[in-house]
Amino acid sequence: MKIYEKAPAKINLLLDVLGKREDGYHEIEMVMTMVDLADRLEMEELPRDAIVLSSQAGYIPLDEKNLAFQAARLIKDRYGVKKGVYIHLDKHIPAAAGLAGGSSDAAAALRGLNRLWQLNLSDAELLELAAELGSDVPYCVRGGTAIARGRGEKLEQLPSPPQCWVILAKPQLNVSTADVYGQFRLEKVKQHPSLERMVKAIKAGSFRDMCAELGNVLETVTLERHPEVRRLKEIMQRLGADGVLMSGSGPTVFGLVAKEAKVPRIYNGLRGFCKDVFVARMLT
């Protein structure tokens, strides 16, 4: 039997850091939603007790450094599963891009292996496992649009945002989330985004207000360290995107576009600046 799971990319419509916690993590507030740029996982049982991971992408690890591998190891160890699994990861989300590709792969592995091995784990049990793997993994298990608090594991579901086109562009550099948070200084943030106003815009279905409330305080680090990310934002704005923001710790920048007629011009303009440009829709 083969099990298939999609692992969609996420974007942050809002990311705010409230301070440093005693455990070393940062206290955050985020609004996240998913887009239809996605990896795909294919899983089937192996006759031997092993985890084997393959991928067509040459840029990702296929061992314990991979979050999908870690998810398989965790669920096997936690529930005493003595069966093996072969996972093929069809990779489309760029790595180290601020789009939670690795976290979404791990979430898809948890969901898929729960079905493959007929473990009948509840959503709460899957979320508990997810929290052990990384801050974005619980959100990726649940999906949809949500407020994430704490270090990302406290989730509150929201209605789907107003439907629009999402153009994503990643410059040719990788950014470490840990490094960005390590260099983040709260006192450098001149204006925090408003969670209250963003939630109000989404609930009202107002595309214009949602674009007006986009905000990410981690731009104070990544845009400073990598001027090409700042330039990418400026190009996207100049080409006519309705709302532009860096996702997560970067370096991917996304533009929200209401009118389909604008999409080719923005896409083609960005392709002159960087190779990794994608056109997606929000998942509803």
Task: Describe it.
- This protein has 284 residues and is of the alpha+beta class.
- The chain has ten helices and eleven strands.
- The chain has helices spanning 67-79, 101-116, 123-133, 137-142, 177-183, 195-204, 207-212, 219-225, 227-238, 263-271; strands at 2-20, 26-46, 51-55, 84-90, 145-149, 154-158, 165-170, 215-216, 243-246, 253-257, 276-281.
- The strands form two sheets. Strands 1, 2, 3, 4, 5, 6 and 8 form a seven-stranded mixed beta sheet that branches. A four-stranded antiparallel beta sheet has the order 9-10-7-11.
- The protein is globular and about 55 Å long.
Order of helices and strands: EEEHEHHHEEEHHHEHHEEHE
Biggest pleated-sheet summary: 7 strands, mixed
Number of H- or I-type helical stretches = 10
Low-confidence stretches: none
Shape verdict: globular
What percentage of amino acids are in beta strands? 25-35%
Q: What is the number of beta strands? A: 11
Output the radius of gyration: 19 Å
Oligomerization status of the protein chains = single chain
| Portion in helices | 25-40%
Alpha-carbon distance between the termini?
29 Å
Structural class computed from helices and strand pairing: alpha+beta
Mean pLDDT: 95
